[in-house]
Amino acid sequence: MTERGPELPDPAPPAPAPTGVQHLRRLFDTVAPEYDNVGVEFFQPIALGLLAELAPGPGERVADLGCGTGAFLLPAARSVGPSGSIVGLDISAAMLERARSAAAAEGLDHIALVPGDAADPDLPAAAFEVLAASAVLFFLADPSSALARWRALLVPGGRIGVSTFGPQDEVWQSVDEVFTPYLPADMLDARTSGRRGPFASDAGMEQLVGDAGFDQVRTATREVPVRFRDAEHWQAFTMTTGQRAMWGFVPEAERAAVRDEARRRLADAAHPEGGYVVHQQVRYTLAARPA
Ligand SMILES: C[S@@+](CC[C@H](N)C(=O)[O-])C[C@H]1O[C@@H](n2cnc3c(N)ncnc32)[C@H](O)[C@@H]1O
User: Fold this and answer.
1) Which domain holds residue 159?
2) Looking at residue 27, what is its pLDDT?
3) Domain membership flag for residue 34
4) pLDDT 10s digits, 120-136
5) If you measure from the C-alpha of residue 182 to the centroid of ligand 1, how many angstroms do you get, rounded to a whole number?
6) Whose CA is nearest to atom 26 of ligand 1?
7) Ligand 1, residues at Cβ distance < 6 Å
8) Which of 84, 231, 257, 279 would be 169's cystine partner, CB 3.0–4.6 Å?
9) Closest C-alpha to 190, from 128, 236, 132, 135
């Protein structure tokens, strides 16, 4: 019997180029109100891992590219303190607006928020000790040239850290695979899934970053447990991330069946204490601009 779930909100309609900047701006403008806001610990722990690796200290100047609603930005602003400064750049005005109100609510007035394209940020050269991009690099059409531009923003010896996704556990993978038959080829190659290209391995990422002119390249990893109260909670979460675009490719008539199959597979992640727990491996690639 088909289990009834909550109504599926109308997902962002697919655009001809799912990785294009306009599409991403529209996608993140759409998800912004709920992004990282439905009680699922995901982007925060990922960003806090990056913060721990980069360890920005008091007085340092930090750039956070693709800052979103502030998962890295806000704790980094606390770390550098009022003698430091932090610039958050994002393509989505709605994501920036959420970061702006969160910063204002905390009185963090050493944060500057600027709209812009992380592929070629309009920021001053050699002006930052630390540069971060958490869950962003894989969205850029040419990560290699972006990294080379990012290098120029750092002072000599300045530190860079990017977080990208390693493998998900088997259950989460199998849940996501329900969408596979509907996705266009360029989304199947999505580097977010980390299954191909430089984003598929520590060595691939280290080479990508090293080839962009950084040294002291290293990798740190962390496993983030992701908890959903129930299947509805999982579904609500998928509508608040880049995954929302996946729903957009499923024909409306088939969405309920896809949802039911995904929920059936998610049942394998049932936790003895209730709800579901799946796991996401996160890869941090760290390096420095040669001194
Ligand atoms: C998965 S979110 C990560 C946000 C934030 N760093 C975090 O950890 O929560 C990806 C962010 O990258 C932004 N983004 C995607 N492509 C971008 C681009 N070309 N330039 C600037 N921001 C971009 C999106 O608008 C979104 O805010």
Assistant:
1) 22-169+190-227+279-288
2) 87
3) yes
4) 999 999 999 999 999 99
5) 24
6) 68
7) 21, 24, 28, 36, 43, 47, 66-68, 71-72, 90-92, 95, 117-119, 134-136, 139-140, 242
8) 279
9) 135
Q: Are 64 and 73 in contact (CB under 8 A)?
A: yes
CA 91 to ligand 1 center in whole angstroms: 7
Nearest to residue 39, comparing CAs of 229, 247, 246?
Answer: 229
Tell me whether residue 31 is in a domain.
Answer: yes
Domains: count for the chain: 1
Atom of ligand 1 nearest to the CA of 25: 25
In a domain, 29, yes or no: yes
> Going by DSSP bridges, is the β-strand pair 215-228/154-168 parallel, antiparallel, or unpaired?
unpaired
Tokens of 156: 């000599």
| φ, ψ dihedrals at 146, nearest 5° | -60, -45
Instruction: Considering only residues 190 and 205, tell me which one the structure prediction assigns the higher pLDDT.
Output: 205
Residue with the two structure tokens 């606390």: 78
- Report yes or no on 246 lying in a domain: no
Contact status, residue 78 vs residue 101, Cβ threshold 8 Å: no
For ligand 1, atom 1, name the residue with the nearest CA. 135
Question: 74-94 pLDDT, tens per residue?
Answer: 999 999 999 999 999 999 999
User: Which residue in the block uniquely carries the two structure tokens 């597979």?
Assistant: 265
CATH number of the domain residue 46 falls in: 3.40.50.150
* Calpha distance 245→141 (Å, rounded): 17
